[in-house]
Amino acid sequence: MKLPRTFYEQSTVDVAKQLLGKYLVRKHPDGDSSGRIVETEAYIGPQDLACHAAKGRTKRTEVMFGAAGHAYVYFIYGFYNMLNLVTEAKDYPAAVLIRAVEPMDGIELMKERRKSNVLRNLASGPGKLCQAFAVDRTLNGADLSGKVLYVEDRGEPAPKFQATVRIGVDYAGKWKDKPFRFIVRSSEFVSKR
DNA sequence: CAAGAGATCATCT
DNA sequence: GATGATCTCTTGA
Questions:
Q1: What is the pTM of this model?
Q2: Could you tell me which of A71, A66, A89 has the C-alpha nearest to residue A6?
Q3: Which nucleotides on chain C have any atom < 7 A from a protein Cβ?
């Protein structure tokens, strides 16, 4: 069952936690792929200095100000794309970063795109995941109730998870220490332990 | 194994 | 003109 818009309208931290154990699905002409989400991070709004929207409403952050249930994809370090899912009310900028998934369907395709045969190395990080799933900025603003990219519930019970600090946000003052990263600790497929 | 450097570009100052 | 929600490779122990 595809997650409805109302799911993404909940508080960002709740969305981030509940996404664990759900399945990211990517439909593509070359073949479809999916993966079980095992790591997420919450970026909870304009006051959160780690959130891009703390810089205000700009061309780049515009999507986060839009309605929940859309993809926010941006390009970083000259190499990598990051996939976020926009949460909460329209005009309130917040999103959940998808950091890692456990590959399920379309594994051969992911191996090709990633140029790696190591299952654990296919989508265990936000940049890797976007490569494996062919997610780039053309998907920025994509509606998650559409056909190209969405998250579905496959009826799996909520996995046990652990909250830790977010990665790579040392510049964010007191916000860098907030426990807004959620990982399925038992999974081999998280980016770091 | 841990640590460091380099790659490379859209976005904002 | 600086810098970043990263990754990979190289180095050295």
A1: 0.96
A2: A89
A3: 4-8
